[in-house]
Predict the structure.
Amino acid sequence: MPIYLFLGYTENIQTMRTPFIALLLFTYILANAQGADRGMKAATTPTQVVRVALVIGNGAYTDSPLRNPTNDATAIAAELRACGFDVTLLTNANQQQMETAAATFGNKIRNNQGVGLFYYAGHGMQVQGENYLIPIGANITVEGDVKYKAMNVGQLLAQMEAAHNKMNIVVLDACRNNPYARSFRSAAQGLAQTNAPTGSFVAYATAPGSVAADGTGSNGLYTQELLKAMRTPGLGLEQVFKQVRANVLQTSARKQVPWENSSIVGDFYFRGGSGAAAGTAPTAAATAPATAAAPTAADIDAWFRKGREFNKEKNYTEAIVWYRKAADQGYARAQSDLGDMYYKGQGVPKDYTQAVAWYRKAADQGDEYAQCVLGDMYYNGKGVAQDFAQAAVWYRKAADQGLDFQHYAQAVLGSMYYNGKGVAQDFAQAVVWSRKATEERYGQPEAENNLGTMYLNGHGVPQDYAQALAWYRKAAGKGYAAAQYNLGLMYFKGQGVPQDYAQALALYRKAAAQGNEDAKAALKRLGAE
């Protein structure tokens, strides 16, 4: 009967490794919970003009899903908040949610003498010269369904005009291919040109009648360039979109031409410049430069902790916004948590490639948790090509830090040296790393089990059944199924203890109850299931 060797990484990668991120994240939150309420405040902007935004990103369509709209909307919402906007963010919204949010938005901007901004990323289409934004779950089978099952852009513009505020901005990154084109009579592509009502600025990701690609990165090309331009202090509204157009033209080899339609008469700046939002004479305070102050370390930490609060409340959409704000400032723990969100698909579509990208940013700054998870990603080939050598590199970085997760990394390194994965097989090194992983209060049961196996087989240490039993008992006492099975096997064979079938069966049953396949097979052979 075979001895259950080590962690079972080759045959049991899923059962052994999948719970890792959730478990360590919970430990990590507890380890960093002290002072969670320090410096908790929202980012502010010096401008006194009321700024209100509605941001929608739809990507999870049953037919023709889109990769980037939720990422785009989340990033835009975070940037608008940094620019002083009161933002409502919706992702993957149905028709009722979109229409309710639009009505609330209209009420917010009505008579506030400020700025209203609407941003949409997702599928949009034109039907008989009218533009429509497509909700998630819209059951559209023929062209006539669109006006009843989608949001009419013209009606939204009319609602914004009726609010009588100083300026309205509409940004439509919605010029993707029409997913229903085959069943429609007309073959019109993209969105139709819309006349901007007085005091309005309407921007399209590409020229009327043209389509834009969804993009292959974490953001679509148009929104990627828009974010860069919005972050430039002192750029007026028209200059922001001119810069976007120039960069999109260059990057797309002139295949995508952003377009704007404007009837504004005043000035507007996302960051810096005059605070005036319309053609009326600005006050002395408004004409003073309003360059946004660089966030302090306390601000960034507060954004991160706000993300943690929303995450704890399972409001993942808002958690993503605040994590990204902190992560964009280079805050490693926020980058690491963003990696977790992409790994689990919380608030964003599950995306291992994006998870790896965020973990790497944090790991490069020395974040031990991210280094451990990045090791896992390379070990299991998630989001990157499977590469045991790279896995070993990242585990070693975490193992050498002497922080919360070093013992996990040490245990895995011990297993890798034992099995010769990513490193030359070396039983002596396997013993060294496994012993490190069993030290102090973080003693890893898998490492204890591994040491038991090495003493049992005389690998890297003299064969010693008493030591094997001691290590197996430690791990089995912590509920580690493999150790329970191995300990049962020693009782079954009488290795280091008097042969005791009853004790062996009891241990097999404990291991089998946790899903250990070797224990299940042993019970089946003995007719003791």
Summary: Confidence is low (pLDDT under 50) at residues 1-47, 182-187, 274-292. The two ends are 17 Å apart (CA to CA). The CA atoms of residues 180 and 489 lie 62 Å apart.
